[in-house]
Predict the structure.
Amino acid sequence: MITRSLSIGLGVSIAAIVIVVAFFVSGFDLSKNEKSPNTLLQPENMDQTKGGGSKIDLSLFSSKATTLLGSPSATVTLVEFGDYQCFHCNRFFHTIEPGIEKNYIDTKKVKMIFKDFTIIGEDSISAAHASHCANEEGKFWEYHDALYNHWTGENNGWAAFDNLVEIANQTGLDEADFIECMEDGRYSSVIEQSNSQGRTLGITGTPTFFIVGSNNMVTKITGAQPYEVFEKIFESELKK
């Protein structure tokens, strides 16, 4: 099993874009590897070779991302842009992600990247920053999970500083190092750059996902779609 230390409103819009020019960063190669409207749209193929779509730099997905979850050799990559205060992100984590992890990440078919898109409030930024601080001790995914397991709503204080420290203690982080990391704001620019990259990709709400296939076809999923939506795209990409 791939452990996390190695390293959803409902409704969406889905679009596919063929990538013609790709750039890779952060030590792994993706090629190898508002709130959402209550409307479900069919995938729309936008093939640049036929005059549709636009070029996307794949570094928008991998740059300023957190620790990879899964095998680096997985041929399909799931990129999530999320906000820890987001109701639908929390729903995705509890009801959809477990199936994806069991059937695709643990089986080394899909790898996952999480990127910040902090749009709800100041505590969203604090929680995101805390996750990066946890990453310094190799516990990003444990802290990521703990944040969603402590979720109680939006802008109600559950992700305030003192609570983030308590979550750090529960996750086994060094309290002094964690507090120092939080107080000096060393990841503030990383979070803002991730937000900027999300805006460049046209993201207006969370969660938003991009599935990158082995042939650099990118499928965008907006919202906490049912597991079957992800499954269909994964299986299609894995057959290529």
